[in-house]
Amino acid sequence: MNEKAVAYVLRLGDDALVAAQRMAALATWAPQLEEDVALANIALDLLGQARALLTYAGELEGQGRDEDLLAYRRDEHEFTSALLVEQPDTDFAATMVKLLFFSAYQRLLYEELSAGDDETLAAIAAKSVKEVAYHLSHACAWTVRLGDGTEESKRRMQTAVDELWPYTHELFASDSVWRGYGFDPAGLRERWLGIVEPVLAEATLERPVDDWAPTGGRDGLHTEHFGYLVGEMQSLHRAHEGVSW
Amino acid sequence: MSQTEWPLWEVFIRARRGLGHLHVGSLRAADTTMALQHARDLYTRRGEGVSIWVVPTDAIGASSPDEKDPLFDPAMDKVYRLPSYYRMPEGAERL
């Protein structure tokens, strides 16, 4: 078993899974029917990525764990997703800013992985990069529209940007797992800023200063919101083990 | 807010090259960009198209059902407008 590969792929899968769970919870809550369908589409894309990645992580691990066991039977501290994706959707602005930050990161990382040596991972990344390119354009459109919108929409967007910005540092924090397999996202920060900063500028939003940079998600140390998320996500499977449609 | 609902748009999809755009439905959006994005989400999720048109519903002039007779009925008894009496050239299966 290649432990470094397992840990690496698990991080990608956990990011997608937690982002999907957050987004899916918004179904029927979007401000418009059309936007509701868009958010559900994005959630399903992310869930598809999570399934492929977790399945692959389970295969690499070779202990007989499939996507369901990895998603539904691990405890809070065993998830290695970034803190950013578990942050709550306090309003639509938070949802869109989170999507902007996360999809820009995913796009860059998947692009690199799609040209990588691991053929399975490259195939998953190549399929996913087209999906996240759309997520990114959706998030960019809303960021500009709301940031450069009314006084109220601008206030909400700036609040979301300020609150979520600190969590973006963790995406690019290098460690032995990131360096041990695939592509180390640490080198993507500049290119990520190259995507995000112009969008914030066009949206007339202020780019926050780089200051507080919380980490811990990659080591299973999550924020206080995470337990509820995992509890809800796993409740059906834990009540009816092995349940399927 | 003076307006609580976004304006209505009609969506037309071209299924593949060589075909015309067909009306597939309508949606609400604030402007053209958003209408295109929503159309993509609502009407091309299963690979239905290669091109999308969105048109503000307001911009479409439509005939009224009351005008059905004057508009369409006069054509019904003018068989000479149809190629009924045209003889197929020998050997041609279709034109």
List keywords for this structure.
A: 245 residues, mainly alpha, Ferritin, 10 helices, B: 95 residues, Ubiquitin-like (UB roll), three-stranded antiparallel beta sheet, 2 helices, 3 strands, flat
Give a verbal description of the structure:
Chain B: Pfam families: PaaB (PF06243). Chain B: This is Ring-1,2-phenylacetyl-CoA epoxidase subunit PaaB. Chain B: InterPro entries: PaaB, PaaB_sf. Chain A: It comes from Kutzneria buriramensis. Chain A: Pfam families: PaaA_PaaC. The complex is a heterodimer of chains A (about 240) and B (about 100). Chain A has one domain: Ferritin, core subunit, four-helix bundle (Ferritin, Up-down Bundle), CATH 1.20.1260. Chain A has ten helices and no strands. Chain A has helices at about 5-25, 35-60, 65-70, 85, 90-115, 120-145, 150-170, 175-180, 190-200, 225-240. Chain A is globular and about 55 Å long. Chain A starts with a helix and ends in a 6-residue tail after the last helix. The model of chain A has no long low-confidence stretch (mean pLDDT about 95). In chain B, strand 1 (about 10-15) and strand 2 (about 20-30) form a beta hairpin. Chain B has a three-stranded antiparallel sheet, covered by helices on one side. Chain B has helices spanning about 30-45, 70, and strands at about 10-15, 20-30, 50-55. The model of chain B has no long low-confidence stretch (mean pLDDT about 85). Chain B is built from two helices and three strands, in the order E-E-H-E-H. By secondary structure, chain B is of the alpha+beta class. At the A-B interface, helix 2 and helix 6 of A face helix 1 of B.
